[in-house]
Amino acid sequence: MKEIIMAINKTKRAEVYAKFHGKCAYCGSELDINNWQVDHLHPRQNGGTDAMENLMPSCRICNHYKSGLLIENFRKQMSKLHNVLSENYKVRVAEQYGLITVSPFRGKFYFETLAEFKEKLKEKSSGA
Which domains does the chain have, with CATH numbers? Predict the structure, then answer.
C-alpha cells in the first residue's frame, strides 16, 4: 500500500520557518520567505515524522543536496565536497585567479552551532 503524504499546513510551515529565525538549519543562509523548503531531519523514508522537532527550515540547495540522507551521512557527504570540487579543472582555475576559495566543511551544521551557542549562554547565565 502506497503511503499518502500530506502537505504541511501554513501554520506549521510558519513555525518551521521561525525555528531558526528565518535561516537555513544547515548552512545558516537567510531564507527567502517565498523560496524555501521544509526538510525532514530524519527522512520520512527512514521512519521520520512530521513532528516539529523533525522539521527543519532549509534553503533549496541544502534540501536537494541532503535529499533523503540521514544527518550523519549528509555530514560525511559535506566533508568530502571540497575534495570533489578540487578535482574540477574550472574550480582549480577559479582558485588560481582568486575568484573562489574552497575550504573543508567545518563539521557542524548551523542548527548544531546555534544549539551549542545557546547552551553556553545558559551556562553563563546560571553561573556554571
Answer: 10-125 (1.10.30.50)
